[in-house]
Amino acid sequence: MEMSSSNGDDRPVSELNDSINDLMLKLSLQSGEPKGSTEFANSADKLSRKGLKTLSEGNIAKLFGNTNHKFWNTQPVTQPDQKLTENDFGPISDIDTVDKVRSDPYPLPSGFKWVVCDIHQESDRLQIYELLRDHYVEDMEKLFRFNYSQEFIKWAIAPKGYIKDWHIGVKIESTDKLIGFISAIPCKLSLSGTLINAAEVNFLCVHKKLRSKRLAPVLIKEITRRVNLKAIWQAIYTAGVIIPTPIATCRYWHRPLDIRKLVQVGFSGLGNRMTMSMAIRIYKLPEEVPKYFRPMQKKDVPQIHKLLCNYLQKFKIYTVWTQEEISHWFLPQKDVIYAYVKETDGKITDFTSFYNLPSSVIKSDKHKILNIAYSYYHVANTIPFENLINDTLIIAKSMNYDVFNMIDLMDNRKVFEKLKFGQGDGDLHFYLYNWKFPPIKPHEVGIVLM
């Protein structure tokens, strides 16, 4: 895997910052109008049309949102003028050998140093948290900003089998302050039935005031080098902009749970003929949590593993998990991940899950946090999928979430209209590095990347 920007130009470091992340869409501020409620006007949707971006997305668009694609034209990715058929499948460049990989870290500008961040050390974890909190994502209106918890970050980048050396930081030598970060985790992917070892790259972040130092390209090259040293040559990543070349393009949908709060913080707005009481009635959910669901437990792991493996096999791309990985990604952790099962006579037949990613509300006297639940994985066997998701919404509402977000991948799109989801404006593009893969439809995607 090679994600360098070694073409000798002077582009700002932030131009590459979102190319391996799904930063914009995870914040999910492009909420649209639910069908059947044409009077509901979502101001977040207006914000996205006015140019809602992550901190660096504007620069990225200049680099990748044109026909030149100077950086990606040099990389082993499918190019825009290539038309792939179902027979075009496999590595783009020859598999290399580890002994050809650079052995030393890439040089940094004077005054900076490489560090390996220990996510299990409180001091390191706090520095990562503070860097992401202050410099990772906010909307252009400066109304909302991601508020990853330390426990969420640890969960996201330290699954079973993670590689500590892939948690890369850049610090100022004189102050020991963390001003740059990138991470990757190993994963096994099924691509149309072919299994490959890959890296999932995420959390590329550079301090706002230091983006003229061109640290982001160096971070990308360094994570590439370290991944290659483990004989891994493919990667999966997402972006909110089009670069060469998506294997799939999906879209976020949003289901308001507390419309009053969403309006109060400026996330949503009401149309001229829509009153608050009308909006509340539109989005009202039952208060009683479904009794047939219970939280997932450790003893459920083997059954959940089998359930998910069987379900995901119908998709053209998905993650292949071990039971240990199922334990990590799905066993409930407060304010991180929630999973529920339906069990009958000792057999688990249905499953639902979502993760917690709040946003700080920057300019509101009434509220400081917007509680957002993000759809994860769902399997419905004995109850209709629509009922499963509706019951998940009821659970999320009972936990005081303000909005529930889903992507239109897997089977999700089937429920959006009936359950009053609003379509977002932005797309989430999925990419594979160094692997030819003909484009697929959203419903053929079986993987969720955070």
Automatic annotation (TrEMBL):
List the SUPFAM superfamilies.
Acyl-CoA N-acyltransferases (Nat)
Q: What class of enzyme is it?
A: transferase
Highest rank taxon of the organism: Eukaryota
Q: Which InterPro entries match?
A: Acyl_CoA_acyltransferase, NMT, NMT_C, NMT_CS, NMT_N
What is the catalytic activity of this protein? N-terminal glycyl-[protein] + tetradecanoyl-CoA = N-tetradecanoylglycyl-[protein] + CoA + H(+)
Would you identify the family this protein belongs to, as annotated? Answer: Belongs to the NMT family.
Entry's EC annotation = 2.3.1.97
* Any one Gene Ontology molecular-function term assigned to this protein's record: glycylpeptide N-tetradecanoyltransferase activity
Boundaries of every Glycylpeptide N-tetradecanoyltransferase N-terminal domain copy: 92-250
Keywords noted in UniProt: Acyltransferase, Transferase
**Ranges for the Glycylpeptide N-tetradecanoyltransferase C-terminal domain?**
265-441
Under which name does UniProt file this protein?
A: Glycylpeptide N-tetradecanoyltransferase
A Gene Ontology cellular component where this protein is annotated is: cytoplasm
Protein role:
Adds a myristoyl group to the N-terminal glycine residue of certain cellular proteins.
